[in-house]
Amino acid sequence: MPSLRLGTRGSPLALVQAHLVRDALLAAHGWSADAVEIVVIRTTGDRVQDRALAEIGGKALWTKELDRALLDGEIDCAVHSMKDVETVRPAEIAIAAVLPRADVRDRIVGAESVAALPERARVGTSSPRRAAQVRRLRPDVEIVLFRGNVDTRLAKLAADEAEATLLAAAGLERLGRSEGHAIPVETMLPAPAQGAVGIEARAGDHEALRLIGAIDCPETHGCIAAERALLAALKADCHSPVAALATIEGAILTLRAELFSEDGAHHVHAQEAGAPGDPALPGAVARDLLERAPTEVRRLFGG
After folding, report:
1. 142: helix, coil or strand?
2. Taking phi first (over 0 means left), then psi (-120 to 50 degrees means alpha), and beta for anything else, what does residue 95 get?
3. In what order do the strands lie in the sheet with 252-260?
4. Nearest to 196 by CA among 225, 176, 175
5. Which segments in the chain show pLDDT lower than 50?
6. Is 19 exposed, middle or buried (0-12, 13-18, 19+ CB in 10 A)?
7. Considering 84, 106, 205, 216, which one is annotated as catalytic?
8. C-alpha to C-alpha distance for 119 and 228, rounded to whole angstroms
9. Residue 151 annotated among the catalytic residues of the structure
10. How many CA atoms lie within 13 A of 37 on its CB side?
11. pLDDT per position as a tens digit, 163-193
12. From CA 5, how far away is CA 300, in angstroms rounded?
């Protein structure tokens, strides 16, 4: 019987997601419980909690140790929250599968909605996207830095370090948490790949790719690929406030995206539809956004 070593970060949410992947693999292949071993890899992103991600190396802080373990053969595959995976990946690593997507929305904890926040409320987040979106909706609010896992951020909120914070609905649901109120995507478009769990393997490990591919959700994978291709076309990084969501209905993929200035005062929105897997679609959306974006927005992206 095959034995797969599944690498993951050690946060409570990461471990829940690793067990989701493990359970899906066991079910897909009819394996017994000992066929998949979960291996915890400690990452820099987990160790450094007092600075914004963009200031200390960006999304690579979540992936570089897992990448090293994967390429060194310590693990056979790695589980990631796909919104935390940098856009450009090493050629030696492939996204082998993506689980069915969970709720893509953000939840606000501490108020019923962004509109219901008290005057000049403090909102805790480390996300440039969330900060810009909240500032656009409520220019009076103050953004304070909140980093750490879900429990850490909720503890900061309980300690009165802010009046509210924003968390991904998918993460809260996976942890069995009911805190907060979901924000409609029409109000706050989510981060690219939010709500999706991906599994990476070595590009040359055909057996691992085959085994992991059995749990792939093609629709989710296609949507995530379009959102990540948009990021690549925009030349976006951790400092770039960008929101995007791809959806598939029938044979049509619709890609919505929005770019912001850091203070939320300027933004641009675009939407295009086409065939799922059309490589030209994300690039067309990116060009449209950058052509129409105000200077305050365009300077944060490819322009």
Report:
1. strand
2. beta
3. 242-249, 252-260, 267-274
4. 225
5. 48-50, 52-58, 303
6. middle
7. 84
8. 36
9. no
10. 10
11. 999 999 999 999 999 999 999 999 999 999 9
12. 39
Any idea which residue has 């992936």 for tokens?
63
Helix axes 12-29, 150-158, angle to 10 degrees: 150
C-alpha angle 298-254-250 in degrees, rounded to nearest 5: 170
Which tokens belong to 205? Answer: 């490990």
The two tokens of residue 98 are 């993506």
The label of the residue with tokens 């009076």 reads: 140
Contact (CB, 8 A) for 246 and 277: no
Residue where the block lists tokens 């927005």 = 297
DSSP 99-160: PPP----EEEESSSSSTTSPTT-EEE---HHHHHHHHHH-TT-EEE---S-HHHHHHHHHTT
Find where tokens 């471990």 sit.
15
